[in-house]
Amino acid sequence: QSALTQPASVSGSPGQTITISCTGSDSDVGGYAYVSWYQQYPGKAPKLIIYDGFNRPSGVSNRFSGSKSGNTASLTISHLQAEDEADYYCSSYTISRRVFGTGTKVTVL
Amino acid sequence: EVQLVESGGGLVQPGRSLRLSCEVSGFDFDDKAMHWVRQAPGKGLEWVSGISWNSGRIGYEDSVKGRFTISRDNAKNTLFLQMNSLRPEDTALYYCAKDHSSFWSDSNNFLDHWGQGTLVTVSS
Fold first, then answer.
1. Are the beta carbons of B45 and A100 separated by less than 8 Å?
2. Chain A interface, best mutation among B111, B113, B116, B119, by max A CB count within 10 A
3. Mind listing the pLDDT tens digit of every residue in chain B (124 residues)?
4. Most B CBs within 10 Å, among A98, A100, A105, to test the B interface
5. 3 state DSSP class of B29
6. B55: alpha, beta or left, given left = phi > 0 and alpha = psi -120 to 50?
């Protein structure tokens, strides 16, 4: 069973915009519109930051946005800040299970 | 405030068993699906198992099928994971997570609250 594919790392300077991709297949990302994204700081539990592809839970900064095209979902972080340095995971439903992405480490230069 | 507190982790020899628990509070436990997600040291997240609100629908990741059993006691607001025939590759931090939906297998579900995890180490 394959995880969704994410870049291992993405970096940017404060104030810049970065995008993290999450590539799956017709069986997961492409077949279902509802990708979620999670932020995880070292030693901490994951936190939901995007659900249903592009919605933000209450309290999550509007600098985070989600989108999807075909079999690839994307998380965009605008006006990058030092506090955004963390690991990010996408997740999708697929037949009879859930699947997570491989994870992306975001570094703020 | 939603709280999920895992317990039951520890060091166990290969082939042995362990039972994890997750006590929850702050929401209607008997109305929500629940999940177990694990994270091996230095690795990414891996979904392990999900259970619907009434235990009517259950799913497992392939590598744990036949060895792990998820269950819940709605009267006690507690989720369980019975892990048998443990292998070194099962070593991980195991998180309990709440679904926003009643059924874990809904295509529009997502995990909106997580516990802090309990560490399982399988080693001789």
1. yes
2. B111
3. 999 999 999 999 999 999 999 999 999 999 999 999 999 999 999 999 999 999 999 999 999 999 999 999 999 999 999 999 999 999 999 999 999 999 888 778 899 999 999 999 999 9
4. A98
5. helix
6. left
